[in-house]
Amino acid sequence: MKLNRNVGLLVAAIATISAGAGVAYAQSTTSSSTTTTTAPATHGKWHHHQGGFLLGMTLRATKQLNLTAEQQASIKTILSTARAQAKAAHAAAAPAIDMSVLGNPGDANYATALQSAKTLAATRIQNESEIQGQVYNVLTAEQKAQLPSVLASMKAQAAQRRAAWEQKHQPSTTG
């Protein structure tokens, strides 16, 4: 059903927007912009990730690119500047979107709330891609050339984890 798909996409977009505040907090609590603290992969535990979808991938990949101390400091400066800008924008922003309105397509304010959520999601993606570009520009030509293979390796590892999870959680067909 198209409505369910749209609502699902909207919820994902809002989760991404909501994660922005958590991302800023998570980035401010790390000692270095290129390090993350990840809890063991156990069911029911919270995991600490850095960055949103776009930026997070780049930041995780930089851990494998042997950044110099100067590059790490540059990235840390980029992230702290972005964090300060995000805090200022959040303070000046309109009130949060009412999830009860977004959950009810019959609500009179649904269209307005939906448009607000779309705008916030688009802004978040735009800001994140700009920061990602700034981080990318800190890399050397050799590191930029290495980045696609690092990302491909990360993708393969994620596929392996997903396959292992699916195998472990596959419903029993006996019956």
What low-confidence regions span 5 or more consecutive residues with pLDDT below 50? Answer: 13-49
- DSSP E strands, number: 0
| Number of helices, counting only DSSP H or I runs of 4 residues or more | 6
Reported for the largest beta sheet, the result is: none
* Structural class label: mainly alpha
Distance between the termini: 31 Å
Spell out the helices and strands N to C.
Answer: HHHHHH
Tell the overall outline.
flat
User: Averaging pLDDT over every residue, what do you get?
Assistant: 75
Task: Please give the share of residues in helix.
Answer: 55-70%
Describe the structure.
The protein is mainly α and 175 residues long. It has one domain (2-168). It is built from six helices and no strands. It has helices at residues 2-28, 53-62, 69-92, 99-102, 110-138, 141-168. Mean pLDDT is 75; it is low at 13-49.
